[in-house]
Design a protein that fits this description.
Layout lengths: L2 H17 L7 H5 L5 E5 L3 H8 L2 E6 L4 E5 L3 E5 L5 E6 L5 E6 L5 E6 L3 E6 L3 E7 L6 E4 L10 E5 L2 E7 L5 E8 L6 E5 L2 E5 L3 E6 L4 E7 L13 E6 L2 E6 L2 E9 L11 E10 L3 E8 L2 E7 L1 E3 L6 E3 L3 E7 L4 E8 L14 E5 L4 E6 L2 E7 L2 H10 L3 H10 L9 H15 L2 H12 L3 H13 L3 H5 L11 H14 L1 H10 L7 H14 L4 H13 L3 H11 L4 H8 L9 H18 L6 H7 L4 H14 L8 H11 L4 H7 L5 H10 L3 H10 L3 H12 L2 H11 L2 H11 L3 H10 L6 H7 L9 H42 L27 E5 L4 E3 L28 E6 L1
Antiparallel strand pairs: 1-30, 2-3, 3-4, 4-5, 6-7, 7-8, 8-9, 10-11, 11-12, 12-13, 14-15, 15-16, 16-17, 18-19, 19-20, 20-21, 22-23, 23-26, 24-25, 26-27, 28-29, 29-30, 31-32, 31-33
Helix pairs in contact: 4-5, 5-6, 6-7, 10-11, 10-12, 11-13, 12-13, 13-14, 14-15, 16-18, 18-19, 19-21, 20-22, 21-22, 22-23, 23-24, 23-25
């Protein structure tokens, strides 16, 4: 599995664990770490080889494998371990095999000093036998190219062979004098090798050695605990020796630091120690795969013995390391192996790791999503397994999302988590009706139909009606509220409505007053389009949905005789509905139905009047009595707004009930202002209202009556003095006040009269000044306008004869009159002015009075 995908997936799993209940069986299982690698033995031809021989070395190419044995054989294998070619090199052990990047050329060295470099498809190119064992050989990575025909060998010294222009091989010594060469790795232009003293790196471009990394533990025999080398990339070398790991980076030296130094240098970027002896190294993204040789003390003999080798994944840190995973490998004959018997090779492109031992070859692979899902299912982590399958559904080959989901549902059911199992059915079962019906029957067998009811599909797909009826019957037997909820939520076409109606009716025979069943039956009748029966139940229950039902299904014909019931239930909503649909139920029909309920009749007619003052005009006479009986505060506004109510009838009713304010209004409206004023004074004894009434009527005789009535009543006189100043001359009132009469606040009233008078004088003077100033300004403006000249040219015509105003012959004499309105006439075309008024006016604009049409210019020539 891709590394980045695994990181994302691990984060998602953490979120799942924090937000949902774990489905693991125990806390121990939850804390158990998942292996990072999976293992299998390389079999087929390899099994046959290792039964008779022992593996000594192996090299991995992306296309094939090359295996060397202790009996001097080299086998070419495919990635499944099948033998494709066999080469007899020597009767003794093969020490190392090297391949170029193309996989077309191979270098082999053996314990008897033989070295061969040849093309797998082009024949032998080099064959030499040395007088000492040759431990290592490495061909140039680009050996296939003609200018890269180079390889190195190592015994007691490191030799470089180069092919000359005469097709001869020229050797040169790269290093000697520090013991046997134990390992060599060639990458790009860099060669790294290890001898008894440490690790060296040679730059093939400059032919300079750029570093020497000494080994840490010199107490270990280098032949028993050999150095492991691995290039991570062209500039990063990984060194493992004993228990020490170093990661070295080759860097370019700055020009200012060169002097006599090599152009490159090596920096150790990570360094740490491991618990066991290192037999092999390989990179895995930014981590390391380390093959370790392990010794342990036997419990029986209490002696040190060889244990199973370990393959660890380690994350290097600046000053230490973190173990990501660790696996003990059961390889054949591990009890007899030494550290030098194990090797680790890897295929860079596929993240495959080969653990080579004399009697066994094990292949370690990164676990893919199928392996990850297997592990999750084994640990009963179904939720995580399902999510992993969904994320990688295009890459997984072994598992199906549906199979994982069904296993998850069964697991939840076994644990008794029925609601969660039912909820997961929505996602897992999808649109498969067969799977849904199978799961429903399974829930029925365990008595948990209620659990799955909320999650049954209602659209796309739709299950058989029997499924839904079975669930409804389950609820009806034990949970009326749940049954009602399902009927409300489920569309009516999911089940056979008639069957469910009959079952509900049978239950109502046992409990006829059950409101839940009655409400549900009404909904069922609605689904079945038996709206009349549904409406009867809703009205009986006084249910709030009755108005919605009427509107939705246009049941106005069914409620003609149920208007009183609707009004009793909710008069506000009922009236609004009736008025909104008066085309379906007429006003006359509603009034007739409410005849025996005048209080409801008033509510209806009052709202009708508020909406339109004229629609119910024939009931305005009736409304007078209804307002007087049930709603006196709105009687006076009604009398004021209505133009259709009979005033005599209204006056009679108001006088009978002694409604003074209403009577006063009616008397004034009927023209009997004096009687109305008298009633205000005598019945209401309210001088302010009387004054206000007199102001509204604006009748001098009414003011006279008011003064006469108030002259012997000091409080009334005070009110008049304070308010009549702008309507009646206060002197008329003051002259009639009897001497010696004590009038409250007389001085204040007189002061107010004087102040009002002064205010009126000031207002008049102010208005006069404004008028004079405006008149003068307009006069000046008119004068300036009239003093301006008027352009007269050939385009102007006489408004009387319609001829050009100027003659065509400029030498002739002419006379033209031009008015301020810009109309022009020939002198002879204008009528002769009268002797009484010498002024002349434009015939078109102003023929009778002086105005802007007055002449301003007379042109003569």
């Amino acid at each position: 599995m891709d590394y980045h995908m695994r990181v994302v997936f691990s984060l998602l799993l953490k979120e799942i664990r924090s937000n949902e209940e774990s489905t693991d069986d125990s806390e121990e299982d939850e804390s158990e770490e998942e292996p990072k690698l999976k293992y299998e033995r390389l079999s087929n031809g390899v099994t046959e080889i290792l039964q008779k021989d022992a593996a000594s070395c192996m090299t991995v190419h992306e296309k094939f494998l090359a295996l060397g044995t202790h009996y001097g054989k080299v086998y070419l294998l495919d990635v499944q371990g099948n033998i494709t070619q066999k080469v007899d090199i020597s009767p003794v052990k093969i020490n190392q095999i090297s391949l170029d990047e193309s996989g077309e050329h191979m270098g082999i060295c053996s314990e008897d000093g033989k070295v061969q470099v040849f093309g797998l498809y082009s024949g032998e190119e080099f064959h030499e036998t040395f007088d000492c064992p040759i431990k290592i050989v490495a061909v140039h990575p680009q050996f296939v190219r003609s200018h890269c025909k180079q390889f190195v060998t190592g015994g007691k010294k490191l030799l470089l062979y180069e092919k000359t222009w005469m097709n001869r091989w020229k050797p040169s010594v790269l290093h000697e004098g520090e013991g046997n060469i134990r390992n060599v790795k060639w990458r790009g232009h860099l060669i790294a090798w290890a001898n008894n003293m440490g690790v060296k790196i040679l730059d093939m471009i400059s032919k300079q050695r750029i570093t020497n990394v000494p080994r840490d533990d010199i107490s270990l025999r280098p032949d028993m605990y050999p150095c492991s080398l691995c290039w991570k990339d062209n500039l990063t070398l990984i060194i493992g020796w004993g228990t020490s790991v170093k990661i070295c980076s080759v860097k370019e030296r700055h020009a200012s630091e060169m002097r006599d130094l090599p152009s490159r240098y090596v920096e150790i970027i990570f360094q740490f120690d491991t618990e066991f002896y290192i037999s092999g190294l390989a990179p895995l993204c930014d981590q390391l795969v380390v093959l370790s040789y392990v010794k342990e003390v036997s419990e029986k003999t209490e002696m040190e013995c060889c244990a199973r080798p370990r393959l660890d994944i380690i994350q290097p840190l600046p000053e230490s390391c973190e173990e990501i995973s660790s696996d003990a490998l059961t390889v054949r004959g591990f009890q007899e192996n030494e550290c030098r018997d194990y090797h680790l090779e890897h295929s860079e492109g596929e993240s495959l790791f080969y653990i080579i031992s004399p009697r066994d070859i094990v292949v370690a692979k990164e676990r893919d999503q199928d392996d990850h899902i297997d592990w999750l299912l084994e640990k009963k982590k179904y939720e995580e397994a399902l999510m992993a399958a969904e994320i990688s559904q295009k890459t997984i080959k072994k598992h199906r999302i549906l199979d994982i989901g069904l296993a998850y549902i069964n697991h939840l059911v076994e644990k008794g988590e029925y609601d969660l199992a039912a909820r997961k059915c929505q996602k897992i079962l999808g649109k498969s009706t067969e799977l849904w019906e199978f799961e429903v029957y399974k829930f029925k067998e365990i008595g948990q139909l209620k659990a799955i009811s909320r999650y049954l599909p209602r659209r796309d797909p739709i299950l058989k009606p029997l499924i839904y009826e079975m669930v409804l019957h389950e609820f009806l037997e034990s949970d009326y509220e749940g049954f009602a909820m399902l009927i409300k939520e489920w569309p009516g076409d999911l089940y056979n409505n008639a069957i469910i109606v009959q079952v509900v009716v049978d239950h109502l025979k046992k409990d006829p007053q059950n409101r839940t069943l009655l409400r549900t039956l009404a909904e069922l009748y609605t689904y079945d389009q038996r709206y009349g029966k549904a409406l009867e139940i809703y009205l009986t229950l006084r249910h709030k949905d009755v108005f919605q039902l009427i509107h939705k299904h246009n049941l106005f014909s069914s409620i003609r005789d149920k208007i009183v019931l609707l009004m009793d239930f909710d008069s506000e909503k009922a009236v609004d509905m009736l008025l909104d649909n008066e085309d379906k139920i007429s006003i006359d029909r509603v009034v007739e139905e409410l005849e025996n309920r005048p209080e409801l009749q008033h509510v209806y007619l009052h709202k009708l009047f508020k909406r339109d003052h004229h629609k119910g005009q024939k009931y305005h006479e009736k409304q007078i009595s209804l307002y007087a009986e049930y709603d006196r505060p709105n009687l006076l506004p009604f009398l004021r707004d209505s133009t259709h109510c009979p005033l005599e009838k209204a006056l009679e009713i108001c006088q009978q009930r002694n409604f003074v304010e209403e009577t006063v209004y009616l008397l004034s409206r009927m023209g009997n202002s004096r009687s109305a004023l008298k009633m205000i004074m005598e019945e209401l004894y309210d001088v302010d209202k009387a004054i206000e009434f007199a102001k509204e009527q604006d009748d001098g005789e009414l003011w006279e009556d008011l003064i006469l009535y108030s002259i012997d009543k000091p409080p009334f006189i005070t009110g008049l003095l304070n308010n009549i100043g702008t309507h009646v001359d206060p002197i008329l009132l003051i002259h009639r006040i009897k001497e010696g009469m004590e009038i409250p606040n007389l001085r204040d009233s007189l002061v107010k009269i004087l102040q009002d008078y002064n205010l009126q004088i000031l207002l008049r003077e102010g208005c006069k000044k404004i008028l004079v100033a405006d008149s003068l300004s307009l006069l000046k403006k008119m004068h300036r306008t009239q003093m301006k000249g008027v352009r007269v040219d050939e385009e102007n015509i006489c408004e009387s004869c319609l001829s050009p105003i100027l003659p065509s012959d400029a030498s002739k004499s002419f006379s033209v009159t031009v008015f301020h309105c810009r109309h022009m006439f020939h002198k002879e075309c204008l009528p002769i002015p009268s002797t009484m008024s010498p002024l002349q006016f434009c015939n078109i604009c102003s023929a009778k009075h002086r105005g802007p049409g007055c002449a301003i210019l007379e042109m003569k020539k």
